[in-house]
């Protein structure tokens, strides 16, 4: 039986949640560990707010990512074709285990490390282009084009097709409510493109991740066409979105905290540690991927029935004073080990080493190039994407 009665709450004012999610989540977290809320789709869900509960729930095998475990009439989410829907973000063991095993044979640490020099060259080229201007929007001119270039290099996509990749991903990351058809058009375009690209890689393999995924085997096991398609989609979508947000949010945080920026400039060797703290302080996702209990479960003393939608608040967990001392303070010297920005357990992000590498290189190149870098924000402050799941900037005006 429950030891705590959840409060029945709407999901607060969406504008407030987007502008300052941490203040909202602080109120919810202190009011109780689990809340019954109304989700953005108008359907009921359970929101988990405290670090220990969130961390345990992420790794709990009873909390399924498979949408088939949602109760009838419950969560439906973004409608994707079967070839794209069957990806690791919608999958549990044993299928999840099998596909991760195959992918890790191809997506090796060596392949990530080989991208170090190309990432730095891309970062330098992007900064060369904006250096004479004195002002720039770092999202559109730097944080967004850098990861799309890296992902296209990784997958073996030619430069001519890269702008299409970015427009498709933007249409899915931040759907336009006035034009819902654009997200569907982007999905159709992606499906057609990846079908042609996979056929081309089978005919003429190259030294890229997509060719390696086609060739990888585990005894007699190999990835099917739909599995390859969904992996390519996931690498593009998740790899682009998370890294853009991480670079943008990290830059904003440093420029908003001159003491921390000065400490990092004085000791660039702290950068790796700083990226972990920046991911905790204002990470790329406010919520983890939704879960569906396969049986009745108890979280934070609250009973949650099987099949209901469970939302795990990373933003609330990362500012939980029960886990992190003075959590609302950015401290690049903090040991932020245990943050959940890149997942946990069997659902730890496969691309985490690449996201870290890109962010470290992006910040190092930016700070090296522009010693006088400063925010150039409008009076009403930074503009955030209208999303309660993702945490990312629409723009980041700076001067230098």
Describe the structure.
Helix content is 49%, strand content 10%. By secondary structure, the chain is of the alpha+beta class. It has one domain: Orthogonal Bundle (Cytochrome p450). The radius of gyration is 21 Å and the shape is globular.
Order of strands, widest sheet: 1-2-3-9
Give the name of the CATH superfamily. Cytochrome P450
- Distance between termini? 59 Å
User: Biggest β-sheet: count, sense, barrel?
Assistant: 4 strands, mixed
Low-confidence parts lasting 5 or more residues at pLDDT below 50?
none
Average pLDDT, rounded to a whole number, is 90
Q: What's the Cα radius of gyration?
A: 21 Å
Bulk shape: globular
Give the amount of beta strand, in percent: 5-15%
- Discrete helix count: 17
Element-level helix/strand string: EHHEEHEHHHHEHHHHHHHHEEEEHHEEEE
Helix/strand/pairing category: alpha+beta
Enter the CATH topology name.
Answer: Cytochrome p450
Total number of distinct structural domains: 1
| Fraction of residues in helix | 40-55%
- Assigned CATH class: Mainly Alpha
Number of strands: 13
Which architecture per CATH? Orthogonal Bundle
């Amino acid at each position: 039986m429950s030891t705590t009665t959840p409060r029945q709450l709407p999901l607060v004012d969406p504008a407030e949640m987007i502008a300052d999610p941490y203040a909202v989540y602080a109120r919810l977290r202190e009011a109780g560990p689990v809340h019954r809320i109304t989700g953005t789709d108008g359907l009921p869900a359970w929101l988990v707010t405290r670090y220990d509960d969130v961390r345990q729930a992420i790794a709990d095998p009873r909390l399924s990512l498979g949408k088939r475990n949602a109760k009838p009439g419950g969560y439906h989410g973004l409608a994707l074709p079967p070839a794209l829907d069957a990806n690791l973000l919608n999958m549990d063991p044993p299928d999840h285990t099998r596909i991760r095993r195959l992918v890790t044979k191809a997506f090796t640490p060596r392949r990530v490390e080989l991208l170090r020099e190309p990432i730095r060259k891309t970062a330098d080229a992007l900064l060369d282009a904006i250096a004479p201007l004195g002002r720039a929007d770092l999202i559109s001119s730097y944080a967004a084009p850098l990861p799309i270039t890296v992902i296209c290099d990784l997958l073996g996509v030619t430069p001519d097709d890269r702008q299409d990749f970015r427009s498709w991903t933007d249409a899915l990351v931040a759907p336009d409510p006035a034009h819902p058809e654009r997200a569907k058009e982007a999905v159709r375009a992606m499906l057609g493109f990846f079908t042609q690209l996979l056929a081309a890689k089978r005919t003429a393999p190259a030294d890229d991740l997509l060719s390696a995924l086609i060739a990888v085997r585990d005894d007699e096991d190999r990835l099917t066409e739909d599995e390859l398609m969904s992996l390519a989609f996931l690498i593009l979508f998740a790899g682009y979105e998370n890294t853009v947000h991480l670079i943008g949010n990290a830059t904003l945080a440093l420029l908003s905290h001159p003491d921390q920026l000065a400490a990092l400039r004085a000791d660039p060797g702290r950068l790796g540690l700083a990226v972990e703290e920046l991911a905790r302080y204002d990470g790329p996702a406010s919520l983890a991927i939704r879960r569906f209990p396969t049986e009745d479960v108890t979280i934070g003393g609250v009973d949650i029935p099987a099949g209901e939608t469970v939302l795990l608040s990373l933003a609330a967990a990362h500012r939980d004073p029960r886990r992190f001392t003075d959590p609302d303070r950015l401290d690049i010297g903090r040991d932020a080990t245990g943050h959940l920005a890149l997942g946990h357990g069997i659902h730890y992000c496969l691309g985490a080493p690449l996201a870290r590498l890109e962010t470290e290189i992006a910040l190092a190149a930016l700070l090296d190039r522009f010693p006088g870098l400063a925010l150039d924000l409008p009076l009403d402050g930074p503009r955030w994407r209208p999303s309660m799941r993702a945490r990312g900037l629409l723009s980041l005006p700076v001067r230098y």
